[in-house]
């Protein structure tokens, strides 16, 4: 069975993957030029700032970031050393632990956000018309839901 | 000046960035399960297999992959140790060097490709209708051209 893609779909895939990698590199370069944060640091700060109590269990954070446990431990340790996050035991569950946003972390996010969003606008969003914006939202929201469900199922059943 | 995004555009950006990172992690997990290759290895093999004489100058390869010179040197060294690529001096330019696809590299690519493309179909492409495929091609081809031009200009003029 050949699992090839039609020429139209192969062209879409190549354009999407190559441009996305180029875009993420550009956004990360811009972010590092304007702040002390990597893309992963920024993403962690955003997720914690939006969470109730500005804290998330490590397992939940790993799942949201699609990081392995060891990669997340490393990521959070480097952020902890810079004072951007703290790590605390979960109330009522001494085995679990949570990452908690610090004031330093919140200030770093607030300082970096305008630069980062300007870069997102400049390199991506200002180039799109409303129909294209709607198409991206529709495609990637649907796909994200499906990928999360598949991953949760495979983690639970270990069938994959 | 606030460089914020409209709620519609912020929703599109978040769906795109979060789902893309999730998708790339899933595709890399699938690739590693079916082969000895990382996503970066695979991408290098594809670019070399498509180049005239199955070889590319290191600078050109770095630019196509959007890798820094040091990251590319590391990437190519690890592939060289596994026999997937060779490194040779450029004919007529002793200072330059090229990465060259080996037979082992080509066989590894041919063996991995059907699994990788099946995974791209399963996780992304089979979920899209033709209008969505056309939208992705249009948006990411246009954006890729713009990002390459901006990067080339900034590398040349060093104004960024």
Describe the secondary-structure layout.
2 copies of one chain form a homodimer.
Chain A: H1 7-34, H2 39-50, E1 55-57, H3 58-65, H4 69-81, E2 85-90, E3 93-101, H5 103-123, H6 130-157
Antiparallel strand pairs in A: 1-3, 2-3
GO biological process, one term (chains A, B): response to stress
Protein name (chains A, B): MarR family transcriptional regulator
Organism (chains A, B): Micromonospora rosaria
Query: Count of DSSP E strands of chain A?
Result: 3
Instruction: State which percent range the strand residues of chain A make up.
Output: 5-15%
| Unreliable segments of 5+ consecutive residues of chain A | none
Q: Can you tell me the overall shape of chain A?
A: globular
Distance separating the two termini of chain A: 20 Å
CATH class of the domain at 35-112 in chain A: Mainly Alpha
Q: Report on the biggest sheet of chain A.
A: 3 strands, antiparallel
- Oligomeric state of this protein: homodimer
CATH H-level homologous superfamily name of the domain at 35-112 in chain A: Winged helix-like DNA-binding domain superfamily/Winged helix DNA-binding domain
Describe the structure.
2 copies of one chain form a homodimer. With 160 residues, chain A is mainly α. The first copy, chain A, has a domain of 78 residues: Winged helix-like DNA-binding domain superfamily/Winged helix DNA-binding domain (Arc Repressor Mutant, subunit A, Orthogonal Bundle). The first copy, chain A, is built from 6 helices and 3 strands; from the N terminus they run H-H-E-H-H-E-E-H-H. In chain A, strand 2 and strand 3 form a beta hairpin. The first copy, chain A, starts with 6 loop residues before the first helix and ends with a helix. The model of chain A has no long low-confidence stretch (mean pLDDT 91). At the A-B interface, helix 1, helix 5 and helix 6 of A face helix 1, helix 5 and helix 6 of B.
């Amino acid at each position: 069975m050949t699992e090839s893609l039609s020429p139209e779909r192969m062209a879409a895939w190549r354009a999407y993957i190559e441009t996305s990698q180029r875009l993420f590199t550009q956004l990360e370069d811009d972010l590092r030029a304007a702040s002390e944060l990597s893309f992963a640091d920024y993403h962690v700060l955003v997720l914690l700032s939006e969470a109730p109590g500005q804290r998330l269990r490590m397992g939940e954070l790993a799942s949201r970031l699609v990081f392995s446990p060891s990669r997340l431990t490393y990521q959070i340790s480097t952020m902890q050393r810079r004072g951007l996050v703290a790590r605390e035991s979960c109330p009522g569950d001494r085995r679990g632990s949570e990452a908690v946003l610090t004031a330093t972390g919140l200030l770093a996010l607030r300082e970096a956000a305008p630069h980062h969003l300007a870069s997102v606008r400049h390199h991506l969003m200002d180039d799109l018309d409303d129909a294209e914006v709607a198409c991206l939202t529709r495609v990637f929201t649907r796909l994200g839901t499906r990928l999360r469900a598949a991953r949760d199922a495979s983690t639970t059943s270990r069938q994959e």
